[in-house]
Amino acid sequence: MANKLFLFSSLLFSAVNLYFLASPSIAYELPPNHPVPPETVCKFTPYPSSCKSFLPNRTANVYDYARFSVKKSLSQTFHFRRLVNRYLRRRTVLSQSEIAALEDCQFLAGLNIDYLTSSFGTINATRGALPTWKTDDVQTLLSAILTNQQTCSDGLQSASPSGSVRNVILAPVANDTKLYSISLALFTKGWVPKEFPGAAQKKNHRKLNQRLLLKASSLIRRGLYDQSVTKRKLLQVSDGQSKVLVADVVTVSQDGTGNFTTINDAIAVAPNNSAASNGYFVIYVKAGVYEEYVSIEKKKKYLMMIGDGINQTIITGNRSVVNGWTTFKSATFAVVGPGFVAMNITFRNTAGPSEHQAVAVRNSADLSTFYSCSFEGYQDTLYTHSLRQFYRECDIYGTVDFIFGNAAVVFQNCNLYARLPMTGQFNAITAQGRTDPNQNTGTSIHNCTVKAADDLASSNGGAKTYLGRPWKEYSRTVYMQSYIDSVVDPVGWREWNGDYALSTLYYAEHSNTGPGSETAKRVTWPGYHVINAADAANFTLSSFLLADNWVPQTGVAYTSVEVTAGLEGPCFGEMEEGKDCGFDSTFRCNNYVSYADLVLFVVLLCLFSVVTNNDGLPIVWARGLFTRFRSWRFVGLARLMAMQGVW
Ligand SMILES: *[C@@H]1O[C@H](CO)[C@@H](O)[C@H](O)[C@H]1NC(C)=O
Ligand SMILES: *[C@@H]1O[C@H](CO)[C@@H](O)[C@H](O)[C@H]1NC(C)=O
Ligand SMILES: *[C@@H]1O[C@H](CO)[C@@H](O)[C@H](O)[C@H]1NC(C)=O
Ligand SMILES: *[C@@H]1O[C@H](CO)[C@@H](O)[C@H](O)[C@H]1NC(C)=O
Ligand SMILES: *[C@@H]1O[C@H](CO)[C@@H](O)[C@H](O)[C@H]1NC(C)=O
Ligand SMILES: *[C@@H]1O[C@H](CO)[C@@H](O)[C@H](O)[C@H]1NC(C)=O
Ligand SMILES: *[C@@H]1O[C@H](CO)[C@@H](O)[C@H](O)[C@H]1NC(C)=O
Ligand SMILES: *[C@@H]1O[C@H](CO)[C@@H](O)[C@H](O)[C@H]1NC(C)=O
Ligand SMILES: *[C@@H]1O[C@H](CO)[C@@H](O)[C@H](O)[C@H]1NC(C)=O
Ligand SMILES: *[C@@H]1O[C@H](CO)[C@@H](O)[C@H](O)[C@H]1NC(C)=O
User: Fold this and answer.
1) What is the DSSP string of 158-217?
2) Would you give the distance in Å from CA 192 to the centre of its chain?
3) Is the dihedral of CA 561, 564, 565, 567 positive or negative?
4) Rounded CA gap, 397 and 382, in Å?
5) Residue ranges of the Pectinesterase inhibitor domain (predicted)?
């Protein structure tokens, strides 16, 4: 009898399991595997008519259309790069600023070829769904090719090219932008769940619901002074809590006591295309002022650069747009190599407010982390250009648009200092540059402090300071649980130009404190929101950047705590956000359990009570199954069952 029941419940569980594993696709209006004519899928892209004109005129499913589109994007990008190369060979007919802008385009097209090749490899190798992290990787890369294209286009436009460059280069740039946007839309349609990208992941981690504070700084330091470090090829430094894999350590010191005297020399010996599993190539940069323009190329992967502290190890430069550089090239420190980590370093651009755009750090490195670093500049200090980035316990100083770009980026426990700009200017802390509604990018500021720097605080009259302004149409910025000082104007946010982007942008505030955090006098744009904990949770490190997959290996401390103030519990049916749950008022209603799930739960409950009367085994097995459920509905159910004393 017990065996039969076991078998029956086993079957039921498999069925249930299948149903819920398949549930993300149920959320689509259109099953991705279903063949449809091109105009049906094109409706979901920002450019339906361009989409229809290049997709093959036959029925296929979303996956096939996406593959086709990404492949087409790749061939168009090769084509575009050849065009740029041709132009650059005829330098004599070009102005200095045109050459500079074209070089940026050449570089960015090279990155796009890599990103498209990698994306195509992933989606060509699968017939259907992908794991969450892979979906996020591809969405990130396809978001970045649009950003790179935009950067190329912006650079060319501000170089005010002559007629011929304008027509021959800018036209395909605009044309390819549409194609990239369609590729991203089709990929999103086919693979990205309707639910906020990180939501499934977040719910999966919710049961931890605790702070993970991994302090690796001290142990890396110990590693540095441990002579055995450089002797063994792979050293696993561990304090029992976290592990940082170190492949090699070199020291940079200006007094000649290290392996090198300049940072660029140290970077040159770092291995090419190293894998994360080999561990970090650590460059320890001793205290000193390094007047170097540092560039970490794409093949220098998993570099970790550690200084002696903010104001001790300083990397400085003074390139600016007024001095003839593009914004992109003005950076004192630029990084593209994925997996980059920096700690305890000050990065500066000293060009000053009158030199306009002058970047201290430009970061286009995927899965990059800056911990305990300082970024000092005026206009455009920190260019969070593209891909996924995390900043923890950093100080960022600047005036106009001083944190700008189109990465998916989270700032945790940072200090944002507004400085005194030029007369007549105002400060915008952020100028987020999202251009496409399907990009997974945005700037999330969590548990930070926004204050005036000394020069602004002591100035008479000073200048107005805003939380952000929309550099591009789909600009997205969130401030949560942060301290906002009186330096921020009561309206909070500033227009870019008239009503540009005001209804397409997404600006949100959640649970901020301080005299500048009062939202009563804030702008009333359609895209501005004061959000609740459930929405804010989408922009935490764990949800927005799926950080639990990659930050731990850096050893950098981070908070994966939920934004929610109280505990969360499941509620039944359609209930209001934030409303107390009927059965227990200490639980806030942030998870909804549908009536269908409730019926399911009752069936399972009955089943359990029968089965568990016989032996304890099914419980163990069922518990194992539950822990595997990624669907939030099951987290809710499991919690409900726990409350009912099922286990
Ligand atoms: C696509 O094919 C169908 C039937 O094969 C035809 O009726 C239609 O005109 C075609 N559309 C285009 C845009 O070529
Ligand atoms: C794409 O996948 C198909 C079938 O799996 C394979 O034959 C083809 O070589 C792949 N294309 C590329 C460019 O990898
Ligand atoms: C524009 O893009 C389409 C594909 O989307 C391509 O076939 C066409 O050649 C492109 N035109 C130019 C001028 O690049
Ligand atoms: C946050 O994620 C939830 C669940 O995916 C979604 O319903 C909600 O719209 C998201 N909120 C925002 C502001 O993106
Ligand atoms: C960073 O610098 C501070 C003080 O300068 C020091 O206490 C800390 O150990 C350093 N961290 C690392 C990782 O070197
Ligand atoms: C760096 O210097 C240390 C100590 O002087 C030495 O053991 C190590 O081999 C050097 N590493 C490189 C890459 O030169
Ligand atoms: C990395 O590749 C470059 C050529 O692209 C080569 O010159 C250099 O020696 C390589 N570095 C290492 C450490 O292998
Ligand atoms: C670095 O120096 C500046 C100027 O002296 C000072 O305001 C700041 O607090 C210092 N930062 C740290 C982390 O010591
Ligand atoms: C930039 O810094 C260099 C080196 O310190 C200096 O020689 C140069 O005059 C500076 N340029 C400007 C415009 O400040
Ligand atoms: C928020 O930041 C402050 C100061 O940076 C820090 O002391 C505090 O622990 C942080 N809170 C959380 C929850 O991480």
Assistant:
1) HT---HHHIIIIIHHHHHHHHHHHHHHHHHHHHHS-SS-TTHHHHHHHHTT-S------H
2) 16
3) negative
4) 9
5) 33-186
The pLDDT value given to residue 365: 98
Q: How many CB atoms lie within 10 A of CB 172?
A: 17
Task: For 484, list phi and psi in degrees, rounded to 5.
Answer: -115, 115
Alpha-carbon distance of 86 to 109, in angstroms, equals 14
pLDDT tens, 34-69? 899 999 999 999 999 999 999 998 899 999 999 999
Which residue minimizes the CA distance to atom 5 of ligand 7? 272
Residue pair 189/62 in contact by the 8 Å Cβ criterion: yes
Provide CB contacts within 8 A for 164, sequence distance 6+. none
Catalytic residues, by residue number, are: 401
Q: Report how far residue 106's alpha carbon sits from residue 101's, in angstroms, rounded to the nearest whole number.
A: 9
| Res. 330: pLDDT tops 60 | yes
Pairing of strands 476-480, 374-376: unpaired
The atom number, within ligand 3, closest to the CA of 175 reads: 1
Q: Is the CB of 250 under 6 A from ligand 6?
A: yes
Tell if the pTM clears 0.90, that is, is over it. Answer: no
Q: Are 334 and 296 in contact (CB under 8 A)?
A: yes
| Residues 124-183: tens digit of each pLDDT | 998 888 888 899 999 999 999 999 999 999 999 988 767 778 778 899 999 999 999 999
Q: How far is the CA of 328 from the centre of ligand 6 (A)?
A: 34
Please state, in angstroms and as integers, the Cα–Cα distance from residue 39 to each residue in 49, 52, 65, 614, following that order. Answer: 8, 6, 11, 58
Structure tokens at 203: 């719910």
Helix or strand run (H / E) with residue 600: helix 595-611
Amino acid identity of residue 487, one-letter, is V
- Find the residues whose C-beta lies inside 6 A of ligand 7: 269, 271-272
Rounded-to-10 torsion of CA 139, 142, 146, 149: 150
Q: What is the pLDDT of residues 479-505, one digit of tens each?
A: 999 999 999 999 999 999 999 999 999
Burial class (CB in 10 A: 0-12, 13-18, 19+), 455: middle
Beta pairing partners, 451: 417
